[in-house]
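Lab notes, practical 5.
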Amino acid sequence: MDLAAFRASLRNPAPPEGLGLAAQALWWDAWGDWDKAHRCAQEQDDKSGAWVHAYLHRKEGDTQNAEYWYHRAGKSAGSMSLDAEWTEIVRVILKGANRAARSPA
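Output from the prediction step:
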């Protein structure tokens, strides 16, 4: 899946099957459901989940909590617009998912 397909999926009432929890979190965030997005981000205990978690707390205005999660993600605190950061996170997560799908098991 690429960014355009991810954005197109936002016309549907639920995220596409097969998305990891961090990508689902960003999907729910785009739908305006911060609580569902936050639950998904919390459930993915890796750097991608932490990055989405950081973004969500930055979006809510909880800078201190966001900084903690950026640190866990190995990222600098977000300085770009929220829309630009959302797009960047989606691109990185989808690129990783696409790479994993092409790798031999």
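Observations recorded by the TA: The mean pLDDT is 93. The longest helix spans residues 82-102.
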